[in-house]
TrEMBL record:
Its EC number is 4.2.1.8. This is mannonate dehydratase. The gene is rspA. The lineage of its organism: Bacteria, Pseudomonadati, Pseudomonadota, Gammaproteobacteria, Pseudomonadales. GO terms for biological process: amino acid catabolic process; carbohydrate catabolic process. It comes from Pseudomonas fluorescens. Keywords: Carbohydrate metabolism, Lyase, Magnesium, Metal-binding.
Length: 403
Protein backbone atom coordinates (compact mmCIF):
# COMPACT_ATOMS: atom_id res chain seq x y z
CA UNK A 1 0.00 0.00 0.00
CA UNK A 2 2.02 2.93 -1.29
CA UNK A 3 1.62 6.60 -0.43
CA UNK A 4 0.92 8.42 -3.70
CA UNK A 5 -0.08 11.83 -2.42
CA UNK A 6 0.40 13.87 0.76
CA UNK A 7 -0.79 17.44 1.13
CA UNK A 8 -1.58 20.06 3.71
CA UNK A 9 -4.98 21.74 3.94
CA UNK A 10 -5.09 25.08 5.74
CA UNK A 11 -8.47 26.40 6.80
CA UNK A 12 -9.86 29.01 9.18
CA UNK A 13 -13.55 28.34 9.84
CA UNK A 14 -13.46 30.61 12.89
CA UNK A 15 -9.90 29.65 13.81
CA UNK A 16 -6.85 28.27 11.99
CA UNK A 17 -6.71 24.51 11.65
CA UNK A 18 -4.11 22.58 9.69
CA UNK A 19 -4.83 19.12 8.28
CA UNK A 20 -2.59 16.62 6.54
CA UNK A 21 -4.17 14.28 4.01
CA UNK A 22 -2.29 11.16 2.91
CA UNK A 23 -3.60 9.16 -0.06
CA UNK A 24 -2.55 5.61 -1.00
CA UNK A 25 -2.48 3.77 -4.30
CA UNK A 26 -5.36 1.62 -3.03
CA UNK A 27 -7.56 4.69 -2.78
CA UNK A 28 -7.65 4.63 1.03
CA UNK A 29 -6.74 7.96 2.57
CA UNK A 30 -6.13 9.19 6.09
CA UNK A 31 -6.07 12.57 7.77
CA UNK A 32 -4.05 13.96 10.66
CA UNK A 33 -4.18 17.25 12.58
CA UNK A 34 -1.09 19.48 12.30
CA UNK A 35 -2.32 22.54 14.19
CA UNK A 36 0.20 24.28 16.45
CA UNK A 37 -1.75 27.26 17.71
CA UNK A 38 -0.15 30.61 16.87
CA UNK A 39 2.71 28.90 14.98
CA UNK A 40 0.63 27.11 12.34
CA UNK A 41 2.61 28.07 9.26
CA UNK A 42 5.88 26.81 10.74
CA UNK A 43 4.43 23.28 10.73
CA UNK A 44 3.02 23.76 7.22
CA UNK A 45 6.48 24.72 5.92
CA UNK A 46 8.14 21.85 7.83
CA UNK A 47 5.74 19.33 6.34
CA UNK A 48 5.72 20.68 2.80
CA UNK A 49 9.43 21.25 2.48
CA UNK A 50 10.95 18.46 4.54
CA UNK A 51 8.48 15.66 5.20
CA UNK A 52 5.90 15.18 2.46
CA UNK A 53 8.30 14.71 -0.49
CA UNK A 54 10.01 11.91 1.50
CA UNK A 55 6.71 10.10 2.09
CA UNK A 56 5.80 9.52 -1.54
CA UNK A 57 6.32 5.88 -2.52
CA UNK A 58 6.63 4.63 1.09
CA UNK A 59 4.49 1.76 2.38
CA UNK A 60 1.69 3.39 4.41
CA UNK A 61 1.41 0.27 6.59
CA UNK A 62 4.88 0.79 8.11
CA UNK A 63 3.78 3.33 10.71
CA UNK A 64 6.54 2.63 13.23
CA UNK A 65 9.27 2.73 10.62
CA UNK A 66 8.00 6.01 9.19
CA UNK A 67 7.82 7.46 12.71
CA UNK A 68 11.45 6.49 13.40
CA UNK A 69 12.50 7.73 9.97
CA UNK A 70 11.03 11.18 10.63
CA UNK A 71 12.19 11.39 14.25
CA UNK A 72 15.73 10.06 13.96
CA UNK A 73 16.09 11.32 10.43
CA UNK A 74 15.42 14.93 11.45
CA UNK A 75 18.66 14.87 13.47
CA UNK A 76 17.12 17.86 15.35
CA UNK A 77 14.92 15.69 17.53
CA UNK A 78 11.85 16.75 19.48
CA UNK A 79 10.42 20.28 19.69
CA UNK A 80 6.81 21.30 19.05
CA UNK A 81 7.13 21.94 15.29
CA UNK A 82 8.88 18.65 14.53
CA UNK A 83 6.65 16.60 16.83
CA UNK A 84 3.44 18.17 15.51
CA UNK A 85 4.51 17.42 11.93
CA UNK A 86 5.34 13.82 12.88
CA UNK A 87 2.02 13.54 14.73
CA UNK A 88 0.07 14.62 11.65
CA UNK A 89 1.72 11.89 9.56
CA UNK A 90 1.33 9.29 12.31
CA UNK A 91 -2.38 9.92 12.94
CA UNK A 92 -3.11 9.93 9.19
CA UNK A 93 -1.32 6.57 8.85
CA UNK A 94 -3.24 5.03 11.79
CA UNK A 95 -6.42 6.30 10.15
CA UNK A 96 -5.41 4.54 6.92
CA UNK A 97 -4.49 1.31 8.70
CA UNK A 98 -7.76 1.18 10.59
CA UNK A 99 -9.79 1.98 7.46
CA UNK A 100 -7.93 -0.73 5.52
CA UNK A 101 -8.69 -3.18 8.35
CA UNK A 102 -12.31 -1.97 8.32
CA UNK A 103 -12.10 -1.27 12.06
CA UNK A 104 -12.68 1.73 14.26
CA UNK A 105 -9.26 2.82 15.49
CA UNK A 106 -9.87 1.78 19.12
CA UNK A 107 -10.22 -1.83 17.95
CA UNK A 108 -6.85 -1.74 16.25
CA UNK A 109 -5.26 -0.28 19.39
CA UNK A 110 -6.46 -3.22 21.46
CA UNK A 111 -10.19 -2.77 21.89
CA UNK A 112 -12.36 -1.06 24.47
CA UNK A 113 -11.20 -0.61 28.04
CA UNK A 114 -14.39 1.33 28.82
CA UNK A 115 -17.80 2.00 27.36
CA UNK A 116 -17.50 5.76 27.26
CA UNK A 117 -15.04 8.57 27.86
CA UNK A 118 -15.63 11.13 30.61
CA UNK A 119 -14.90 14.68 29.50
CA UNK A 120 -14.66 17.98 31.32
CA UNK A 121 -16.23 21.15 29.98
CA UNK A 122 -15.21 24.76 30.57
CA UNK A 123 -17.20 27.10 32.80
CA UNK A 124 -15.88 30.65 32.80
CA UNK A 125 -17.21 33.91 34.17
CA UNK A 126 -16.08 37.47 34.71
CA UNK A 127 -16.81 36.91 38.40
CA UNK A 128 -17.76 34.02 40.69
CA UNK A 129 -21.52 34.39 40.11
CA UNK A 130 -21.02 34.42 36.33
CA UNK A 131 -18.91 31.30 36.57
CA UNK A 132 -21.48 29.53 38.77
CA UNK A 133 -24.16 30.22 36.15
CA UNK A 134 -21.93 28.58 33.56
CA UNK A 135 -21.27 25.60 35.84
CA UNK A 136 -25.05 25.21 36.18
CA UNK A 137 -25.43 25.27 32.38
CA UNK A 138 -22.79 22.55 32.03
CA UNK A 139 -24.40 20.41 34.71
CA UNK A 140 -27.70 20.72 32.84
CA UNK A 141 -25.95 19.62 29.65
CA UNK A 142 -24.87 16.49 31.52
CA UNK A 143 -21.21 17.22 32.30
CA UNK A 144 -19.89 15.35 35.35
CA UNK A 145 -16.66 17.36 35.39
CA UNK A 146 -16.19 21.07 34.87
CA UNK A 147 -13.11 23.26 34.71
CA UNK A 148 -13.80 26.55 36.48
CA UNK A 149 -12.03 29.85 35.75
CA UNK A 150 -13.16 33.32 36.74
CA UNK A 151 -11.99 36.91 36.44
CA UNK A 152 -9.93 38.22 39.34
CA UNK A 153 -10.92 41.53 40.96
CA UNK A 154 -8.29 44.14 40.13
CA UNK A 155 -6.97 42.28 37.06
CA UNK A 156 -8.40 43.55 33.76
CA UNK A 157 -8.28 40.34 31.71
CA UNK A 158 -7.73 36.76 32.72
CA UNK A 159 -6.67 34.19 30.12
CA UNK A 160 -9.10 31.31 29.86
CA UNK A 161 -12.18 33.42 30.65
CA UNK A 162 -14.64 34.10 27.82
CA UNK A 163 -15.25 37.71 26.77
CA UNK A 164 -19.03 37.23 26.96
CA UNK A 165 -20.88 34.86 29.25
CA UNK A 166 -22.06 31.64 27.65
CA UNK A 167 -19.31 31.81 25.02
CA UNK A 168 -16.02 29.96 24.74
CA UNK A 169 -12.75 31.77 25.21
CA UNK A 170 -10.46 31.86 22.22
CA UNK A 171 -6.80 31.12 23.03
CA UNK A 172 -5.41 33.05 20.01
CA UNK A 173 -7.58 36.12 20.02
CA UNK A 174 -5.65 38.81 18.14
CA UNK A 175 -3.46 39.34 15.10
CA UNK A 176 -0.32 40.04 17.16
CA UNK A 177 -0.11 39.05 20.84
CA UNK A 178 -2.46 40.95 23.15
CA UNK A 179 -0.79 42.08 26.38
CA UNK A 180 -2.39 40.97 29.63
CA UNK A 181 -1.47 42.06 33.14
CA UNK A 182 -1.06 39.55 35.95
CA UNK A 183 -1.01 39.81 39.74
CA UNK A 184 -0.27 36.61 41.65
CA UNK A 185 -1.26 37.97 45.07
CA UNK A 186 -4.72 39.00 43.86
CA UNK A 187 -5.20 35.64 42.16
CA UNK A 188 -4.14 33.62 45.21
CA UNK A 189 -6.47 35.61 47.45
CA UNK A 190 -9.45 35.18 45.18
CA UNK A 191 -9.43 31.81 43.47
CA UNK A 192 -10.06 29.58 46.54
CA UNK A 193 -13.35 31.48 46.98
CA UNK A 194 -14.45 30.26 43.55
CA UNK A 195 -13.93 26.59 44.47
CA UNK A 196 -15.69 27.11 47.82
CA UNK A 197 -18.69 28.62 46.01
CA UNK A 198 -18.82 25.80 43.45
CA UNK A 199 -18.77 23.11 46.18
CA UNK A 200 -21.35 25.00 48.20
CA UNK A 201 -23.74 25.32 45.25
CA UNK A 202 -23.18 22.00 43.46
CA UNK A 203 -22.27 19.60 46.26
CA UNK A 204 -19.57 16.96 46.48
CA UNK A 205 -20.13 14.86 43.39
CA UNK A 206 -19.22 17.29 40.62
CA UNK A 207 -15.59 17.00 39.54
CA UNK A 208 -13.94 20.42 39.67
CA UNK A 209 -10.81 21.21 37.65
CA UNK A 210 -8.75 24.39 37.39
CA UNK A 211 -5.94 25.61 35.14
CA UNK A 212 -3.29 27.99 36.51
CA UNK A 213 -1.60 28.41 33.10
CA UNK A 214 1.91 28.12 34.51
CA UNK A 215 1.67 31.39 36.45
CA UNK A 216 2.89 30.53 39.95
CA UNK A 217 6.29 29.80 41.44
CA UNK A 218 6.65 26.32 42.95
CA UNK A 219 6.14 27.49 46.54
CA UNK A 220 3.09 29.55 45.55
CA UNK A 221 1.72 26.50 43.77
CA UNK A 222 2.27 24.44 46.92
CA UNK A 223 0.42 27.04 48.94
CA UNK A 224 -2.51 27.12 46.53
CA UNK A 225 -2.72 23.32 46.37
CA UNK A 226 -2.78 23.15 50.18
CA UNK A 227 -5.33 25.95 50.53
CA UNK A 228 -7.80 24.27 48.18
CA UNK A 229 -7.54 20.74 49.58
CA UNK A 230 -10.91 21.08 51.38
CA UNK A 231 -12.62 21.59 48.01
CA UNK A 232 -11.35 18.30 46.65
CA UNK A 233 -10.28 19.31 43.15
CA UNK A 234 -10.07 16.64 40.45
CA UNK A 235 -6.89 18.42 39.41
CA UNK A 236 -4.88 21.62 39.48
CA UNK A 237 -3.32 22.08 36.06
CA UNK A 238 0.00 23.68 35.07
CA UNK A 239 0.51 25.33 38.44
CA UNK A 240 4.10 26.26 37.54
CA UNK A 241 6.14 26.01 34.33
CA UNK A 242 7.37 22.44 33.99
CA UNK A 243 10.57 22.84 32.00
CA UNK A 244 12.24 22.23 35.33
CA UNK A 245 10.65 18.96 36.36
CA UNK A 246 12.38 19.11 39.77
CA UNK A 247 10.18 22.06 40.72
CA UNK A 248 7.32 19.64 41.27
CA UNK A 249 9.13 17.92 44.15
CA UNK A 250 8.65 21.04 46.20
CA UNK A 251 4.98 21.32 45.29
CA UNK A 252 4.37 17.66 46.12
CA UNK A 253 5.89 18.10 49.56
CA UNK A 254 3.18 20.61 50.39
CA UNK A 255 -0.06 19.35 48.93
CA UNK A 256 -2.17 16.31 48.12
CA UNK A 257 -4.23 18.21 45.52
CA UNK A 258 -3.86 16.14 42.31
CA UNK A 259 -1.67 17.76 39.67
CA UNK A 260 -1.98 17.72 35.89
CA UNK A 261 0.79 18.83 33.54
CA UNK A 262 1.87 18.45 29.96
CA UNK A 263 -0.20 20.20 27.29
CA UNK A 264 2.95 21.94 26.05
CA UNK A 265 5.05 18.76 26.15
CA UNK A 266 6.00 17.02 22.94
CA UNK A 267 8.12 14.09 24.08
CA UNK A 268 8.35 11.38 26.70
CA UNK A 269 11.58 13.04 27.86
CA UNK A 270 9.64 16.18 28.88
CA UNK A 271 7.74 14.19 31.48
CA UNK A 272 10.10 11.39 32.49
CA UNK A 273 10.96 12.62 36.00
CA UNK A 274 7.46 13.92 36.60
CA UNK A 275 6.10 10.45 35.96
CA UNK A 276 8.88 8.32 37.40
CA UNK A 277 8.96 10.24 40.66
CA UNK A 278 5.16 10.37 40.80
CA UNK A 279 5.23 14.16 40.93
CA UNK A 280 2.04 14.44 38.89
CA UNK A 281 -1.22 12.51 38.69
CA UNK A 282 -2.34 13.26 35.13
CA UNK A 283 -0.32 13.63 31.96
CA UNK A 284 -1.81 16.00 29.39
CA UNK A 285 0.57 15.53 26.44
CA UNK A 286 -1.67 14.65 23.55
CA UNK A 287 -1.59 13.18 20.07
CA UNK A 288 -1.21 16.30 17.93
CA UNK A 289 1.72 17.89 19.74
CA UNK A 290 3.54 14.81 21.01
CA UNK A 291 4.27 12.70 17.97
CA UNK A 292 0.88 11.09 17.40
CA UNK A 293 -0.51 7.78 18.57
CA UNK A 294 2.82 5.98 18.24
CA UNK A 295 4.58 8.24 20.73
CA UNK A 296 1.75 9.10 23.12
CA UNK A 297 1.08 5.39 23.51
CA UNK A 298 4.66 5.10 24.80
CA UNK A 299 4.08 7.95 27.24
CA UNK A 300 0.80 6.43 28.45
CA UNK A 301 2.32 2.97 28.93
CA UNK A 302 5.23 4.46 30.86
CA UNK A 303 2.83 6.54 32.97
CA UNK A 304 0.78 3.44 33.77
CA UNK A 305 3.76 1.94 35.62
CA UNK A 306 3.52 4.83 38.10
CA UNK A 307 -0.28 5.10 38.31
CA UNK A 308 -0.25 8.36 36.38
CA UNK A 309 -3.35 8.64 34.23
CA UNK A 310 -4.09 10.45 30.98
CA UNK A 311 -5.96 13.75 30.82
CA UNK A 312 -5.50 14.87 27.25
CA UNK A 313 -5.50 18.46 26.12
CA UNK A 314 -8.63 19.24 24.09
CA UNK A 315 -8.97 23.01 23.60
CA UNK A 316 -10.55 24.32 20.37
CA UNK A 317 -7.13 24.77 18.77
CA UNK A 318 -6.89 20.98 18.63
CA UNK A 319 -8.97 20.18 15.59
CA UNK A 320 -11.86 17.69 15.43
CA UNK A 321 -9.32 15.29 13.89
CA UNK A 322 -7.36 15.25 17.17
CA UNK A 323 -10.59 15.03 19.16
CA UNK A 324 -11.69 11.98 17.16
CA UNK A 325 -8.33 10.23 17.35
CA UNK A 326 -8.00 11.06 21.07
CA UNK A 327 -11.43 9.58 21.82
CA UNK A 328 -10.39 6.29 20.22
CA UNK A 329 -7.18 6.37 22.24
CA UNK A 330 -9.11 7.20 25.43
CA UNK A 331 -11.48 4.31 24.76
CA UNK A 332 -8.56 1.92 24.63
CA UNK A 333 -5.92 3.26 27.03
CA UNK A 334 -6.05 1.33 30.34
CA UNK A 335 -4.85 4.26 32.49
CA UNK A 336 -7.39 6.78 31.25
CA UNK A 337 -8.25 9.66 33.57
CA UNK A 338 -10.35 12.27 31.78
CA UNK A 339 -10.50 14.08 28.42
CA UNK A 340 -10.78 17.85 27.97
CA UNK A 341 -13.64 19.01 25.75
CA UNK A 342 -14.17 22.48 24.36
CA UNK A 343 -16.86 22.30 21.69
CA UNK A 344 -15.87 23.54 18.25
CA UNK A 345 -18.21 26.03 16.63
CA UNK A 346 -20.81 24.66 14.20
CA UNK A 347 -18.89 25.83 11.12
CA UNK A 348 -15.79 23.91 12.22
CA UNK A 349 -17.95 20.86 12.82
CA UNK A 350 -19.27 21.21 9.25
CA UNK A 351 -15.77 21.38 7.80
CA UNK A 352 -14.82 18.25 9.79
CA UNK A 353 -17.72 15.75 9.70
CA UNK A 354 -17.17 13.26 12.53
CA UNK A 355 -18.51 10.11 14.12
CA UNK A 356 -17.92 11.00 17.79
CA UNK A 357 -20.93 11.81 19.97
CA UNK A 358 -21.58 13.48 23.32
CA UNK A 359 -24.11 12.13 25.76
CA UNK A 360 -24.50 12.52 29.50
CA UNK A 361 -21.07 14.03 30.14
CA UNK A 362 -19.27 11.39 28.09
CA UNK A 363 -18.14 10.82 24.53
CA UNK A 364 -18.10 7.74 22.37
CA UNK A 365 -15.80 7.69 19.33
CA UNK A 366 -18.26 5.99 16.97
CA UNK A 367 -17.86 2.81 14.92
CA UNK A 368 -16.73 4.33 11.61
CA UNK A 369 -13.53 2.64 10.36
CA UNK A 370 -10.46 4.79 11.08
CA UNK A 371 -10.64 7.65 13.57
CA UNK A 372 -14.00 8.66 12.19
CA UNK A 373 -13.19 12.27 11.24
CA UNK A 374 -13.11 13.56 7.68
CA UNK A 375 -12.57 16.93 6.03
CA UNK A 376 -14.90 18.67 3.59
CA UNK A 377 -12.21 20.21 1.40
CA UNK A 378 -14.55 22.32 -0.66
CA UNK A 379 -15.94 23.98 2.44
CA UNK A 380 -12.47 24.25 4.01
CA UNK A 381 -11.22 26.15 0.94
CA UNK A 382 -13.73 28.93 1.57
CA UNK A 383 -11.96 29.98 4.78
CA UNK A 384 -8.36 31.11 4.22
CA UNK A 385 -5.68 31.35 6.90
CA UNK A 386 -5.74 34.39 9.11
CA UNK A 387 -2.81 35.09 11.45
CA UNK A 388 -3.76 34.85 15.10
CA UNK A 389 -1.59 34.96 18.21
CA UNK A 390 -1.77 33.85 21.80
CA UNK A 391 -1.45 36.68 24.35
CA UNK A 392 1.57 37.55 26.48
CA UNK A 393 1.40 38.23 30.17
CA UNK A 394 3.15 41.00 32.12
CA UNK A 395 3.33 41.92 35.80
CA UNK A 396 2.00 45.34 36.73
CA UNK A 397 5.50 46.86 36.51
CA UNK A 398 5.85 45.59 32.93
CA UNK A 399 7.96 42.47 33.59
CA UNK A 400 7.14 39.74 31.10
CA UNK A 401 5.65 36.79 32.97
CA UNK A 402 4.58 33.20 32.31
CA UNK A 403 1.11 32.47 31.12
O1 LIG B 1 -5.98 23.70 29.23
C1 LIG B 1 -6.25 24.27 28.20
O2 LIG B 1 -7.04 23.87 27.37
C2 LIG B 1 -5.58 25.61 27.96
O3 LIG B 1 -4.39 25.71 28.62
C3 LIG B 1 -5.56 25.98 26.50
O4 LIG B 1 -6.40 27.10 26.38
C4 LIG B 1 -4.22 26.36 25.91
O5 LIG B 1 -3.74 27.50 26.52
C5 LIG B 1 -4.38 26.54 24.42
O6 LIG B 1 -4.74 25.32 23.85
C6 LIG B 1 -3.11 27.08 23.79
O7 LIG B 1 -3.22 27.06 22.42
MG1 LIG C 1 -4.19 24.19 30.09
Amino acid sequence: MKIVEARVIVTCPGRNLITLKIVTDEGVYGIGDATLNGREMAVVAYLEEHVLPALIGRDARRIEDIWQYLYRGAYWRRGPVTMTAIAAVDVALWDIKAKAANMPLYQLLGGKSRERVMVYGHATGKDIEGCLAEVARHVELGYKAVRVQCGIPGIATTYGVAKRSGERYEPADSDLPAEHVWDTAKYLNHVPKLFAAVRERFGDDLHILHDVHHRLTPIEAGRLGKAVEPFNLFWLEDCTPAENQEAFRLIRQHTTTPLAVGEVFNSIHDCRELIQEQLIDYIRATLVHAGGITHVRRIADFAALYQVRTGFHGATDLSPVTMGAALHFDTWVPNFGIQEHMPHDPLTDDVFPHAYRFEDGHFTPGETPGHGVDINEELAARYPYKRASLPVNRLEDGTLWHW
